[in-house]
Structures are given as structure tokens and as C-alpha cells.
């Protein structure tokens, strides 16, 4: 993704001229606020946010609020490029963004009942999935059926979250399903853009070996990872499931090694994608080891996938796509490299808190601060690009 499409009309506000503009900016701001709020409530409050169990609020707003926004921004920009159709812009985009904002407001308002939340919060991801399906089907773009199915599954998981009985469900099957679907999106899309961008950069540099082309091996790894995640949703604590998860992590590590990431040290916009995918492999292995009876909690693997794989990969995609679609050079400046460092350090600290219970409290606070700093930094550095006109 390196070019922006023309505005549909001269009167279209810049913010709503392309999907990544509102969703990347406000998604980052929401993510920067929501995580530290949970940490503060856990440390100083009664453990509740807007009258609801704080753990449930935190899980929901990270997976379906923050990540849901960034997925929307990416797909509303990428799917038109994949299908050759006009992107959602102007009033339709503003309406979809408004549905996302209404969901965040509803989840932050005390007293809202489950049915109200189901309706108000469910509209955004449902609408996003319909837009993706419309473009994929209209263009007969069968290659991206998996992406459309994953977004639909994420919308269904969000609805199921509000239909759960009781509170503080934690990492139950519904949450694991939502998390697993996002992981599969990373496997699908990350496994596409990472080797492609790496190949393009290495070819321009004239540097010998290029990433291995997509093959049956990649299809096998994706199928095996999907199987492992489905099994995890079904029986997260079964030792046999743990073996499958660990093997999926190792296979994804082998897949990553085939993309020659070590040759991209000269361009942070490229190597950060490899680092994000590496977190995915580590997270699956840690989840598997926990299920097999390792002495650490499953939260280590969960946060390697969330704070690590999702956090780092999302920041990588947001920075690259923002630069490309606003007419900036595809080169990371010092501020961007600092943001990458903050995001990865947040993941290291948060995973450490799961591996060693004695540092859990301190790790939670430090990781929350680093996470917020990386996303707030993105909003400060890249916000003017998202709010301003395209340079060229």
C-alpha cells in the first residue's frame, strides 16, 4: 500500500477521505487511554470500570475496541486496493466511524444493560464485515475470502461477548475465539505483507537472497495454526492442545525465517514486521507450554500475542501505511524507531510479568506506561499526517 485514491468529492473532509485516517488516529488514542485506565483501576480502584468488571472491560476494549478500530482502518484501505473498487469515504465512512465511537461510549457509560451494549457496540464490526464482503464478492476476489470470514467471525465473537452470562468471564471460550481470529488475521495478512515488503526492499538494495515465495508450506502452516487455535478455543488447558500450539509456534518461526528478515536491518519499516511476527511465534509456544503444565501462567503467552504480536505488528502497519498513503517517503525517522522500541519493550515487560509472578505488579504498571507512550507517540507524530492533505 503506497498510494492514496483520489477523493470522491472535493468537499470530502480529509479525515474521512480514507479509512485509515480516522480509525488509526482515534484507535491509537483509545488504546493509549484504555490500557493505563485498567492498570489504574486495578491498583487503586474497586476493580470496576463504568460499573462493569474491569477485567472484562479491559479485554473487550483491547480486542474489539482498539484492535477492531485498527483492523477497520487497514481493511477499509487495503481491500479496495486488492479488489480495484472505490474505497469507503465521506459520509459512509463517517457513519461507520461513528458506530465505532458509539460503541466506545456505550462501554464507558455506567448502567447500560447487556442488550443495549449488544446493539450499540455490535453495529461497528457488523457493518465493517458487510463492507468487506461487499467488495470481495463484487470483485470476485476469492483470495481474500479468508479475511472476510475472519472479520465476520470477529463481529460474531463481539456479539457473543455481550451475551455471556455473569461477569469477569476472563479468558473464556468467547474471548479465546476473538483472540484466535485476530491471530489468524495476522497469520494471513502479516504472512502476505511481510515477505512482499521485504522482497521489494531487498530487490531495490540489490541484496542477493530474497524471501521464499509463497508455497504449500505456507498454506500448511496456516492450516495447522488454525487447527491449533480452534483446539485452544475448545480446550485451552489440555496438554495435547498445548503440544499442537507449541508446534504451531515453531512452524510459524520457520515460516518467518524463510523471509530473510535478518537482511533488513537497514530499514526499520521492514524489520519491525518481522519482529511483530516473531512475537506471534513466541506467543503460541508459550501458550502451548502453559497448557502442557509449565510453571508460568497462560497470561505470558496471551500477552506475547496481544501486547507483542498485535501491538508491534499493528504499530508497524499503521506507521508504514500512514506514510505511504499521505505521500511521505517509506523511510522510518528517529521518532518512529523510538515508537517501535517502546512497543517491543512494553511486550517484553508484560510477558515477564506473566513468567515471574513476583514482578507482576511492577511489570503491569511499567508495561502499561510503555504501551500508552508508544500509541500516544504515534498519535503525536503521525496525527498531523492523518489530519493533513496528501503531500504528493
From TrEMBL:
<dbReference type="InterPro" id="IPR010266">
    <property type="entry name" value="NnrS"/>
</dbReference>
<keyword id="KW-0812">Transmembrane</keyword>
<feature type="transmembrane region" description="Helical">
    <location>
        <begin position="63"/>
        <end position="83"/>
    </location>
</feature>
<feature type="transmembrane region" description="Helical">
    <location>
        <begin position="337"/>
        <end position="356"/>
    </location>
</feature>
<dbReference type="Pfam" id="PF05940">
    <property type="entry name" value="NnrS"/>
</dbReference>
<feature type="transmembrane region" description="Helical">
    <location>
        <begin position="173"/>
        <end position="193"/>
    </location>
</feature>
<feature type="transmembrane region" description="Helical">
    <location>
        <begin position="114"/>
        <end position="133"/>
    </location>
</feature>
<feature type="transmembrane region" description="Helical">
    <location>
        <begin position="20"/>
        <end position="43"/>
    </location>
</feature>
<feature type="transmembrane region" description="Helical">
    <location>
        <begin position="240"/>
        <end position="257"/>
    </location>
</feature>
<feature type="transmembrane region" description="Helical">
    <location>
        <begin position="269"/>
        <end position="290"/>
    </location>
</feature>
<feature type="transmembrane region" description="Helical">
    <location>
        <begin position="145"/>
        <end position="161"/>
    </location>
</feature>
<keyword id="KW-1133">Transmembrane helix</keyword>
<keyword id="KW-0472">Membrane</keyword>
<feature type="transmembrane region" description="Helical">
    <location>
        <begin position="362"/>
        <end position="382"/>
    </location>
</feature>
<protein>
    <recommendedName>
        <fullName>NnrS family protein</fullName>
    </recommendedName>
</protein>
<feature type="transmembrane region" description="Helical">
    <location>
        <begin position="214"/>
        <end position="234"/>
    </location>
</feature>
<feature type="transmembrane region" description="Helical">
    <location>
        <begin position="296"/>
        <end position="317"/>
    </location>
</feature>
Amino acid at each position: 500500500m503506497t498510494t492514496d485514491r483520489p477523493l470522491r468529492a472535493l468537499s470530502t473532509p480529509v479525515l474521512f477521505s480514507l479509512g485509515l485516517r480516522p480509525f488509526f488516529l482515534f484507535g491509537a488514542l483509545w488504546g493509549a487511554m484504555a490500557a493505563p485506565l485498567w492498570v489504574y483501576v486495578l491498583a487503586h480502584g474497586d476493580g470496576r470500570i463504568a460499573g462493569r468488571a474491569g477485567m472484562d472491560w479491559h479485554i473487550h476494549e483491547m480486542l474489539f475496541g482498539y484492535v477492531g478500530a485498527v483492523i477497520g482502518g487497514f481493511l477499509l484501505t487495503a481491500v479496495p486496493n486488492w479488489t480495484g473498487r472505490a474505497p469507503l469515504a465521506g459520509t459512509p465512512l463517517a457513519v461507520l466511524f461513528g458506530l465505532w465511537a458509539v460503541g466506545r461510549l456505550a462501554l464507558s457509560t455506567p448502567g447500560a444493560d447487556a442488550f443495549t451494549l449488544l446493539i450499540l457496540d455490535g453495529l461497528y464490526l457488523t457493518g465493517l464485515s458487510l463492507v468487506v464482503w461487499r467488495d470481495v464478492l463484487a470483485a470476485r476476489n476469492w483470495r481474500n475470502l479468508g479475511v472476510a470470514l475472519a472479520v465476520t467471525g470477529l463481529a460474531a465473537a463481539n456479539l457473543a461477548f455481550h451475551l455471556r452470562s455473569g461477569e469477569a468471564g476472563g479468558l473464556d471460550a468467547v474471548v479465546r475465539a476473538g483472540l484466535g481470529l485476530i491471530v489468524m488475521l495476522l497469520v494471513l495478512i502479516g504472512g502476505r505483507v511481510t515477505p512482499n515488503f521485504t522482497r521489494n526492499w531487498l530487490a531495490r538494495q540489490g541484496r542477493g537472497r530474497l524471501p521464499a515465495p509463497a508455497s504449500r508450506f505456507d498454506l500448511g502452516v496456516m492450516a495447522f495454526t488454525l487447527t491449533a487455535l480452534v483446539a485452544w478455543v475448545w480446550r485451552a488447558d489440555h496438554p495435547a492442545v498445548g503440544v499442537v500450539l507449541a508446534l504451531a509456534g515453531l512452524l510459524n518461526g520457520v515460516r518467518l525465517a524463510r523471509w530473510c528478515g535478518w537482511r533488513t536491518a537497514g530499514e526499520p519499516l521492514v524489520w519491525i514486521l518481522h519482529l511483530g511476527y516473531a512475537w506471534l511465534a513466541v506467543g503460541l509456544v508459550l501458550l502451548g507450554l502453559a497448557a502442557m503444565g509449565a510453571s508460568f501462567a497462560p497470561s505470558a503467552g496471551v500477552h506475547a500475542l496481544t501486547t507483542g504480536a498485535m501491538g508491534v505488528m499493528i504499530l508497524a502497519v499503521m506507521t508504514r501505511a500512514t506514510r505511504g498513503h499521505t505521500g511521505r517517503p517509506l523511510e522510518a525517522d528517529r521518532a518512529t524507531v523510538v515508537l517501535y522500541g517502546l512497543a517491543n519493550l512494553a511486550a517484553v515487560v508484560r510477558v515477564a510479568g506473566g513468567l515471574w509472578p513476583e514482578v507482576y505488579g511492577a511489570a503491569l504498571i511499567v508495561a502499561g506506561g510503555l504501551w500508552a507512550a508508544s500509541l500516544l507517540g504515534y498519535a503525536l507524530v503521525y496525527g498531523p499526517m492523518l489530519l493533513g492533505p496528501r503531500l504528493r
